[in-house]
Amino acid sequence: MNEEILPEENELPKQNTYSEDSIKVLEGLEAVRLRPAMYIGDVSDRGLHHLIQEVVDNSIDEALAGYCKNIYVTLHADGSCSVQDDGRGIPTGPHPVKMISTLEVVLCTLHAGGKFDKGSYKVSGGLHGVGVSCVNALSMDFTATIHREGSIYQQRYSKGDPQTPVEIIGTTEKTGTTIRFLPDSTIFKTVHFRAEKVADRLRELAFLNPDIIMTLEDEREEGTKEVFCYPGGLVDFVRYVDESVTSVVEPVLISGSGKSDSGADTIVEICFEYNDSYSETLLSYVNNINTVEGGTHVTGFRSALTRTVNSYAVNNNLIKTALSGEDFREGLTAIISAKVAEPQFEGQTKTKLGNSDVEGVVRSIINEQLAIYLDSNPKVAKKMIEKATLAAEARMAAKKSRELVRRQSALEFSSLPGKLADCSLRTAEDTEVYLVEGDSAGGSAKQGRDRRFQAILPLRGKILNTHRARMHKVLDNEEIRTIITAIGAGFGEEFDADKSRYGKIILMADADVDGSHIRTLLLTFFFLHMRDLIHQGKLYIAQPPLYKVKKGKQEYYAYNEAERDEVIRRIRKDKIVLDDKGEEILEGATSDGIIISRFKGLGEMNPEQLWTTTMNPEKRTLLQVTIESVTEATHVFDTLMGEKVEPRREFIERNAQYVKNLDV
Length: 664
What we know:
CATH superfamily of the largest domain: Histidine kinase-like ATPase, C-terminal domain
Structural class: alpha+beta
Number of domains: 4
Distance between the termini: 70 Å
Strand content: 15-25%
Shape: globular
CATH class of the largest domain: Alpha Beta
CATH architecture of the largest domain: 2-Layer Sandwich
């Protein structure tokens, strides 16, 4: 046993002085500017757009309270964004405690607002609870204009500090709040708002709040204007999500309320329908927040659906043995919206509802109202039960396939000779696996990789379109079974991303139409059956170069046309070479000895080139796959991979302008 030897007193290391002066007190909104990611998630594109969400949430809260009908979001040409509503307007008079304008208190103080007074707002959104004050802190310019009590009030800020007092700039008969802000470019990695991302969120809010009209206007180069208003609410939402599939049962709308443990009303609205697909699409919300990890409201719905339909089927002699919950989920599209006075969120992304009493409220409402609906609509009930019965038969077939995959997993890949080239390290966080298109590219990747932490799994051809296949068909596909076995974390409802053998799963396919199709097929599989890999940030797309530029013994790689052209100009030192027609030569051999070639596929690169350009962690570019909106992701996959052709054609026509390098 080794004896621990303590240093002599005079040998102790010198410590930095830690005294009263070491304790720093950050005043006002300094903490937000110092650690912005703590308040808005991050300072990338996601955090930037969260600023708009925080301001819009305030307007939505006014709407939920019954005081707002219209919300206008404008993306201005100078890079700023404004959010205008016709609510009551933020109070501007002296605050009874702070003795300054209440407007300034709201805009300069964290956790200050009417949401903490249940007399003002019974329910409210805003996941982080820090509100518009964070937007103020993280903006170079911020202007609040308030229409209230016959006057127009205005105050300007910069980086959270007031630049002017609250001033009366006119009179009005209207009420409402307008917030215009310019994000601080020294804090955010990008300050360019993406109109399509803003539109996705406003559309979602319009579905969830059918009494509101949401307008988005883009005054920049795009110059577009969209109005989102869906009087049908969740029924319109379900139809939007299922636009690319065929309905088997028309939307069923159920709503009601019940008392929570605190005595407050929990309001629940649920709409669902069945379609001819084989997967479940369930979107859940609490106070307009997308609870991507589900929670007690989802559990209550699923258990009540299974119990109520089973009870009806048994009582009417439509089945002999009860069907499982899994059977009732095949082809189900459901939207769950709950208004909870004091929601408690949990889970990795803090978007899983934890209030246990909500489960009972939802279950009670479904049990009662769905039973009445089934009794009143026997034809619809029969279709639902027939759909679930077919799913049960498929489930038994899938069970056999599952056992086959489990047996392969138990053999620890001895059944995969020549397929998976594993790495030597066994700690998941230090390893990665490349799913590579084609045996040729797979061979180069195996030779060029770092064998310590990089595994290679070549895929032959295109995998099955899992959007159009039941589970047993999915599991019967050899390439998919190989992927499931290699990752080693299960699949479907049994999938556990924490058990993945690799910290990164990287899709590597050719930069052509076939490669794009293969990536889409793989993304469809992961979205439907291993979605938590995406939520945990473990799924990536490799970015091989498109061009090689060579002069003499020097070789350069470019990942797009702009990089290619820049490399050429750098080699020429700004000397432009023209062909016989007077056009610039940017491909093939030029008169000054520069050779430009485009890679048609990964197989054209030798192992060293593949390592240098695509696999070397110090030089490569990886795109991390994320889900910004489950609603829109579901809609896109249904459109691209579903049976209906017309929505897919419309999608292609709408996005054709963005396509580059189409089989060049």
